[in-house]
Amino acid sequence: MVRKVLLVGGVLSSLLYVIGIDVIAALAYPDYHNYADQMVSELFAVGAPTRTLMVWLSIPYNVLVFALAVGVWVSAERKRATRFTAAALVGYGAVSTAGLLLFPMDVRGTVESSHSGTPCTLSPRL
Questions:
Q1: Which residues of 40-65 are buried (b: 16+ CB within 10 A; e: fewer)?
Q2: pLDDT at position 114, please?
Q3: What is the pLDDT of residue 81?
Q4: Which pTM was predicted?
Q5: How do residues 65-119 score in pLDDT, each as one tens digit?
């Protein structure tokens, strides 16, 4: 039963991510949705009108990713590839959390800084 609850974290994390970015953030930052010209990191950028909201949505998202990782690990039994997948999920959650909290970017075009390119390499979103 606990394993199934942990695995449901994966479904819930994906729903939270899509709803948070494509619905809630769009309402808070209507100019964002030009997918060809902007990255999702811009919603999390220092100075973006959506930063506080996205941080508060991303923390539960990452907790759910960690729950999924534990669920996958518990489901693995002795399967090495499945345990590797669980470890990769933990790594993804850790990098995502670090990128969110430790390496934010600045809003594009507002200032030249070292923040602008870091999220592209440190916090990829799946």
A1: bbbbbbeebebbebbeebbeebbbbb
A2: 53
A3: 95
A4: 0.78
A5: 999 999 999 998 889 999 999 999 999 999 989 888 888 887 766 665 555 454 5
pLDDT tens for residues 17-59?
Answer: 888 877 787 777 777 666 556 677 777 888 888 888 888 988 9
Task: Yes or no: say if 52 and 25 are a contact pair by the CB < 8 Å rule.
Answer: no
Q: What are phi and psi of 70, to 5 degrees?
A: -65, -40
DSSP code per residue over the chain: -HHHHHHHHHHHHHHHHHIIIIIIHHHH-TT---TTT--GGGGSSBT-TTHHHHHHHHHHHHHHHHHHHHHHHHHHTT-HHHHHHHHHHHHHHHHHHHHHHHSPPBPTTT---TTTTHHHHH----
Length of the chain in terms of residues written: 126
